[in-house]
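Example is below:
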Amino acid sequence: MKILLTNDDGIYADGIQTLAKALAKGDHEIVMVAPDRERSASAHSITINDPLRAKEVEFKKIPNIKSYKIDGTPADCVKLGIEKFINFEPDLIISGINAGGNLGYDVLYSGTVSAAIEAWMMGYNSIAVSLVMDELRNFEMAANFVADFLNKLKLNLLPERMLLNINVPDIIEENLDGTYIADLGSSNYVDTFEKRVDPMGEDYYWLSGRTTEEFSYNTDIWAVNHNKVALTPLKIDLTNVSQKEVIQKILKS
């Protein structure tokens, strides 16, 4: 396959480096275009008021992969990468492997998922991959899963272009309990901001808090908490069809 590889943790992050090495073993043509630094939780932001700067970089462990770092967001990297830095029509854009899960409502904040969404919006098949981090940081298992998935994937058989969110539990491979085609779960945050005081005596606020997750059966959150790789096909359709008639009645009242 011809693949554009990106992420939101930055081009030097363990996740994208491990994935690039795993994919380089296969029969793929790969170009890596990723942020020059961490851009987590950047969602779908794009740069419009500043110039974007790009620099080619070389990695000794993946010498056959052309790599570019961009001082922009993940969505910027996809847009710029497709237009300027690849000399092929990509079969697939992969974003990841993210250091941390992108489960439930997190997909709305995630730079990782937003890069995949940008690619999908531009007309390409795309996958977002995240490791639901624990102590192991087992990016290698997640990367091998993606490589194996691509060996099975027949893009020409897809009825429509793919936007797939993959979350891999951070466990040893022996404890992995297969895969699960999951719905998107629900996740929210409580006690989000911690108030602190700087050396000048001024108040400031630091985003922290904890996640409240619904462990409903069939969801991505349930799956990874049961040692399964969660695969969630996504779609972009924000129209609430059921409320159209309600709004129409309000307008006529």
Notes: The radius of gyration is 19 Å.
